[in-house]
Write a structure and sequence with these properties.
The chain has 229 residues and is α/β, with parallel strands linked by helices. 30% of the residues lie in helices and 24% in strands. Helix 5 crosses helix 6. Catalyzes the formation of 4-diphosphocytidyl-2-C-methyl-D-erythritol from CTP and 2-C-methyl-D-erythritol 4-phosphate (MEP).
């Protein structure tokens, strides 16, 4: 079981930033892109590498869509482990699943349907073959960065050595469980799994990602992803 790899897709959010009218629209993971729900695209992108043995989709306890949508998809299980934040959803899931500490777990956003198989496979290669705690996809910052105060430029930030984090992020189960517990016990808040390991003083590796692996966040992102897919 040394290199067994499972994936978790936290899909308990409502995606309000991506909705023009959040009252009437589906959560963004269920909205169609190129004729299929975005969640399906994200799942299929992970299954494009045969080393991903199983995917757990973690949804909110109130979710009524995922089980029917994914009932016929091989290697996928739906679990209602969702919390009020992404952090809680991932923590609940990693603490509830029956896996060995030395297995690998991969976390991938439901809202990244354009993940190229080349990036996925390279991340898996680097983690499985290297002596590392884990790694993540990321792309270097190419734009000039500004810090603002009340919508006025405060300063320009040096973009050298700055990266935009993506998913998947892949870690040994033992490291991720410990990191999430430490962060939770400390009352801190993190927006990705790498941050939790960094808080422990660990240093995941960066593997070059892709612009195709953009996160669908705003309403116009659906149109962009439609063209990309």
């Amino acid at each position: 079981m040394k290199n067994s790899l499972i994936a978790i897709i936290p899909a308990a959010g409502t995606g309000t930033r991506a909705c023009k009218n959040s009252i009437n629209e589906l959560p963004k993971q269920y909205r169609n892109i190129s004729g299929k729900p975005m969640l399906i695209h994200s799942i299929m992108s992970l299954l494009s590498d045969s080393r991903v043995k199983h995917i757990i989709v973690a949804v909110s306890p109130q979710d009524t869509l995922a089980e029917d949508l994914l009932s016929g998809v091989s290697k996928v299980t739906v679990r209602k482990y969702g919390g009020s934040t992404r952090f809680e959803t991932v923590r609940n899931t990693i603490n509830s699943i029956d896996v060995f500490d030395n297995e690998w777990v991969m976390i991938h956003d439901a809202a990244r349907p354009g993940l190229p198989v080349s990036c996925l496979s390279l991340l898996i290669d680097k983690c499985l073959k290297g002596n590392v705690v884990g790694g993540l996809l990321a792309i270097p910052v190419s734009n000039t960065l500004k810090r603002s105060t009340d919508d006025t430029v405060n300063c320009t930030i040096d973009r050298h050595d700055l990266w935009l984090a993506q998913t998947p992020q892949m870690f040994r189960v033992s490291f991720l469980r410990k990191a999430l517990k430490i962060v939770s016990d400390s009352g801190l808040f993190t927006t990705d799994e790498s941050s939790a390991l960094e808080f422990m003083g660990l240093h995941p590796i960066i593997v070059r990602g892709s612009l195709y692996n953009m996160k669908v966040t705003w309403p116009e992102d659906f149109e962009i992803m439609e063209k990309l897919i």
